[in-house]
Design a protein that fits this description.
Elements lengths: L1 H30 L4 H23 L1 E6 L10 E4 L5 H9 L3 E6 L8 H6 L4 E3 L4 H17 L3 E4 L17 H9 L3 E6 L15 E7 L10 H20 L1
Parallel strand pairs: 1-7, 2-5, 2-6, 3-4, 3-5
Antiparallel strand pairs: 6-7
Amino acid sequence: MILLTASRSLLFYVGFALSLIWFSTTGILLFSFFPHRIRSNYALCWNRFIIFWLHVTCGLKVTVVGKENLPATPYVALAKHQSSWETYFLQYFLAPVSIVLKRELLKLPFFGWGLSLTDPIPIDRGSPKQALKQTLAQGKARIGQGISVLVFPEGTRTNAGKEAKYARGGANIAVASQVPAVPIAHNGGEYWPSGGFLKFPGTITVKIGKPISSVEHGSREITEQAKVWIEAEVEKMDK
């Protein structure tokens, strides 16, 4: 069984690498000078392919609950961070959206090139205070452009079944921009373990919670509400 899973995972990564080279290279050469929505939509074709290819090679599907909770206007998504899977899925599922990420990712060959086409919000983890200012300023700018913002409050991937401290950066953007914060829970880490090679078959569940008002609540309260809801939903999925 493990040998089969390993073989299917290897096949997935072959397609992952080849498609990454294709989409990032063609994206930079052909779409760099197009408006955000056009170049971003092209780059996100790769994300869609990855989720599709994951289904084909590893038998991993996804179901979304609560899609009706997503506002029609820009918002800040506060999502659980268990693996790389949710970064690929949520980027295209929530589009148009700018993802907050560590600056180093943009320096990676091919991957960083393609990622830059989506206008992410890069932060310097080596300078926390400066990172907070950058995130807030750029987050407000994206909201002003009609683009939602995707934030992983835990800051880094947390293994399935574990809980980490939630930072207030995303909630700060919501409050400063006067837009709602939307909590998102999932169990992606159960099937795509953080830092692991193997990808396991099954169905990842993504749950989208009701928007939290940034007019009625401050950033601390928003963050706490999001954390309580997300962790409770993830715990239900694990049972």
